[in-house]
Design goal:
By secondary structure, the protein is mainly α. It contains six helices and four strands; from the N terminus they run E-E-H-H-H-E-E-H-H-H.
């Protein structure tokens, strides 16, 4: 494994995925999720790997079904196009980005273990829930499922 600098670098960092799902470009993730220099590349890489592992595991059956249908990559699966790109790619990235941010915020106390740090971490709890929900919805959007299952009693 190549050395990853402690602070965010100007060198592009790309997390290689499994070849079927798209690679994750760290600079795009940083910009989309408004992650500043307090999140080191090393910490971000670990959070992205955790998110990719989680989402890919959850989508494994669906991925296999698509591969058996002859689709070589996620971008090849028929779907609507927005900005000249499959919306499935957007849903996938949104799931990865949201889980990554939830993971980083969840471990915010690691940055500051003072009383004010713990108080701030507690205030971020709704953000963690919102990011996890965004990830769930992105996965359900990718699968073509509704955001919620409701049943009348």
């Amino acid at each position: 494994m190549d050395f990853i600098a402690a602070a965010p670098s100007d060198k592009p960092i790309i997390i290689a995925n499994d070849g079927w799902f798209p690679d994750i470009e760290m600079s795009h993730l940083r910009a989309a999720m408004r992650l500043d220099g307090t999140v080191t590349d090393c910490r971000l890489v670990e959070a992205v790997i955790a998110a990719v592992t989680s989402v890919n595991t959850e989508l494994a059956r669906w991925q296999t079904k698509q591969q058996l249908a002859g689709y070589r990559q996620l971008k090849d699966v028929p779907a609507a196009q927005v900005n000249h790109e499959s919306v499935l790619l957007s849903h996938y990235r949104r799931a990865i980005y949201a889980l990554t941010k939830a993971e980083l915020v969840e471990h915010y106390r690691d940055f500051d273990s003072t009383k004010s740090g713990h108080q701030q971490a507690g205030e971020l709890e709704p953000t963690i829930d919102t990011d996890r929900r965004a990830a769930r919805w992105a996965i359900r959007d990718l699968l073509g499922l509704p955001h919620a299952n409701m049943e009348l009693i």
